[in-house]
């Protein structure tokens, strides 16, 4: 019998990579998607199967982590072997503006999932993965961060995820559930949400290169992150649920770059050489060299700091040590920083080319109310 998995957050970056990965392993995959007023399944449309076709292995259910009855009903119906709780309000800066909702979805949502397993008496069948985060380390107490490093979250998101982390541990210890936390450091991809810094940079610089935009505005350029590829990281999520006993694991690449480094690397991928000028709130990057076919001209300011993107409390530096995952799961990251930058930039350049072509060919789609 094929294994059956349920993914919350299936429409997100990780959900889409994980669904693809589990389908390739022969799983029947169920995903929870939220009702939205417009289509929100772009990342998984290529996996869609006609509900009328027989032998369907990928099924979507409407649901929400803030709705316990709905979660219980879906889990009761599916009786999954594995649940991957990836659904969350996942944007750190947005969590300062929507702290209560973030707590409801990210913290209590996790409790609702665990309670559903307990209420339905699925503890001996269903394994549970919680999408924990390096944001738990926040104001770091030790470098690099590992499973034993003390937590010190710095945002409503981080604090909500702290509850989710501990309630997962608690249900493992109290009720014997196979429940584990993957403490994942930042991981990116061409389908990363457009407002996270890596994707914001690859998208904006590609568009500036083609003359669709003029300048990229960013917040803290000094923030340092351990950036990996989502494709590699979802494999670790799966591996965590295939062990003899449930444990928590740090998943990271062990290399660290600043936001400024990331911008410089993306510009370089586009053939543009940047020079960083001034410091602090007035820091900016000027193009000193650009390919002849680029819309960017030498002397053009292509990046500026905009304090609106500073956070009320910042996580300045994160660097993970995933020795435990390497030793116990046999997991290592496959994608280098340079490969990640290149893959994301090439993908966004392609999308920008499409937009530029639509502009230059003069095709105009009237807005609905024009
Ligand atoms: P995304 O923001 O890309 O995806 C989040 C998913 O959660 C989307 O499918 C979203 O639906 C869904 N969602 C949001 N709110 C709810 C809700 N109330 N009920 C049900 N579903 C909801 O995040 P990622 O894929 O990047 O991350 C996956 C998980 O891993 C998240 O929990 C995140 O916090 C965590 N994480 C991510 C890391 C990273 O670097 N990417 C690192 C460590 C942890 P919709 O599409 O409708 O918005
Ligand atoms: P993060 O990712 O907060 O680490 O959370 P994000 O890409 O949003 O920020 C990384 C760092 O870049 C700095 N930064 C900016 N960030 C954004 N979004 N926009 C900007 O313009 C900008 N300028 C500078 C930030 O201040 C920050 O220091 C991500 C999410 O995926 C979480 O869900 C996950 O848990 C963690 O990674 C690990």
From TrEMBL:
CDD domains per record: GDP_MD_SDR_e
Top EC class for this record: lyase
Single Gene Ontology BP annotation: 'de novo' GDP-L-fucose biosynthetic process
Keywords recorded for this protein, A-Z: Lyase, NADP
SUPFAM superfamilies reported in the protein's UniProt record: NAD(P)-binding Rossmann-fold domains
Reaction(s) this enzyme catalyzes, per UniProt: GDP-alpha-D-mannose = GDP-4-dehydro-alpha-D-rhamnose + H2O
InterPro entries from the UniProt entry: GDP_Man_deHydtase (IPR006368), NAD(P)-bd_dom (IPR016040), NAD(P)-bd_dom_sf (IPR036291)
Tagged with keyword Oxidoreductase: no
The NAD(P)-binding domain, residue ranges: 6-344
Enzyme Commission number(s): 4.2.1.47
Keyword Lyase applies: yes
GO molecular function terms attached to this record: GDP-mannose 4,6-dehydratase activity; NADP+ binding
Cofactor: NADP(+)
Similarity-based family: Belongs to the NAD(P)-dependent epimerase/dehydratase family. GDP-mannose 4,6-dehydratase subfamily.
Functional note: Catalyzes the conversion of GDP-D-mannose to GDP-4-dehydro-6-deoxy-D-mannose.
HAMAP family the record matches: GDP_Man_dehydratase
PANTHER family named in the record: GDP-MANNOSE 4,6 DEHYDRATASE (PTHR43715:SF1), GDP-MANNOSE 4,6-DEHYDRATASE (PTHR43715)
Identification of the protein by name: GDP-mannose 4,6-dehydratase
